[in-house]
Amino acid sequence: MPSKARAALVAAVLAGSATAALAQDAAAAAPQIHAHRGGTVVNGKPTYAEESLDAYRNAAKNGFVFEVDAKLTKDGVPVAIHDATVDRTTACTGEVRSFTLAALRRCKPDVLGSPGGGLRTRTVKPRGSIPTIAEVLELARLTGSAVNLEIKNVPTDPDYDATSAYANRVMDVVRASGLPRSQLLIQSFIPANLDVAKRRLPRVPTSLLTLSSGQPVIDLANDGGYTWLSPQWPVEPGFVADSHRARHRVAPYTLNDRAQVKAAGRAGVDAVITDDPLMAAGALGLRPATTLRAKLTRRGARVEVTGRLVAARRRDCKGFVRLRVLGANRTLHARKTTLARDCGYDVSVSVPRGAPARLLATIGFGGNARLLPLLVGPWPVPLELPLAVPHG
What class has domain 291-389? Predict the structure, then answer.
């Protein structure tokens, strides 16, 4: 792309940008569902504060991708908040960059849902706190969730840094998390931020956020070597097919009603970004399983889980259950097994010699063409005695 054309397109991308897993094993044909800012709404009901750990824990339960924004505090700590100020989502006022992390911890979210997103919200007594990006990534490590992380360094915000320092600080935390590239997608409206991500973590998937769609956007992604395109919905006719021909995947934002999600599905998008992931799942023909029953035991060097997927129909007894055993800093072992015809399962893994005494485990149903994934845990692994793992 000629430099003038590239510069013009970058300028268009910048304008207004401030307003801007468990993998679904057997449901791979359906678009991924990215929980925008954690997924604050549940079937139309405002339920979680934006980018709160509670929202991300709920997203993990059904295999939704964590969509999260990274801003920097006064002391340079990346935190999970969308705006340059804390005014819209907390009981405090002021720019994020004016607070140290310790001071920011005292800014309690006071609204459920996402004000300005077009869906219902509800004010509540201030509670909780703004998590760090490191905390969100650690939750993703423990739950096996995928993360779509935006480097929120944009010229329309007062904390914009024209150097690479902002993006590098965010990537310091991403690298330190040890989260595998297979669980990461780095997105930004600003190509320079994505270029830093590619340098710091070679082969990490990247996504170019845009306010528009069309061939110039595809050309810009081609020029930068970005994996995904994430345009504002609706997109131009033929854009998804043209992007696929150019070997880019497409994840439009922010689709908050069933008609939009259905239209995106018909267009062949690879993912949808939404404030109401459960609504989006329903629009795509997916529903939650009732529950995943599990009993976790440890016998010597083996950790075993037995249980049953509770589903409305016997024909839904299809797919895999995966047991993951986790140590302090890494997954020690993982194995999956196919559900039996009666929805039962039994899977075990060996604990490596020298593993820490304190272990955690997750049990995850991977989903199928009709059911969403469902996660149980992480829960402590017992030493020798059985432990019933409740989930409902």
Answer: mainly beta
Are 3-283 and 291-389 in the same CATH fold?
no
pTM of the predicted model as reported, rounded to 2 decimal places:
0.90
Q: Where are the domains of the chain?
A: 3-283, 291-389
Encoding tokens for residue 225? 């070597």
- CA quadruple 48, 54, 55, 58: dihedral positive or negative? negative
Helix (H, G, I), strand (E, B) or coil at 139: helix
| Parallel, antiparallel or unpaired: strands 184-188 and 147-151 | parallel
Rounded CA separation 100/104 (Å): 6
Crossing angle for the helix pair 133-143 and 165-177, to the nearest 10 degrees: 30
The amino acid at 139: L
In 3D, which of 96, 79, 190 has the Cα closest to residue 130? 79
Q: 14-18, 149-153, 264-268: which range is least confident on average?
A: 14-18
Token pair recorded at residue 208:
């170019």
Q: Is residue 73 a contact partner of residue 97, using CB atoms and an 8 Å limit?
A: yes
Q: Which amino acid is at 103?
A: A
Using only C-alpha atoms, the chain has a radius of gyration, in whole angstroms, of 21
What whole-number distance in Å separates Cα of residue 55 and Cα of residue 49? 7
At a CB cut-off of 8 Å and minimum separation 6, what does 141 contact?
177, 178, 179, 183, 326
pLDDT at 17 over 70: no
For residue 209, the tally of other CB atoms under 10 A from its CB is 23
Residue 251 tokens, joined = 């994840």
Contact 380, 360 (CB under 8 A): yes
Give the chain's end-to-end CA distance (angstroms, integer).
53
Residue-wise pLDDT for 304-319, tens only, equals: 999 999 986 878 999 9
Give the integer Cα–Cα distance in Å for 81 and 154.
Answer: 14
Write down the mean pLDDT value for the chain: 90
Lookup: tokens for 287: 């529903």
User: Could you tell me the fold of the domain covering 3-283?
Assistant: TIM Barrel (3.20.20)
Calculate the alpha carbon distances from 91 to 41, 239, 343 in Å. 20, 41, 47
Kindly state the tokens that stand for 170.
């965010």
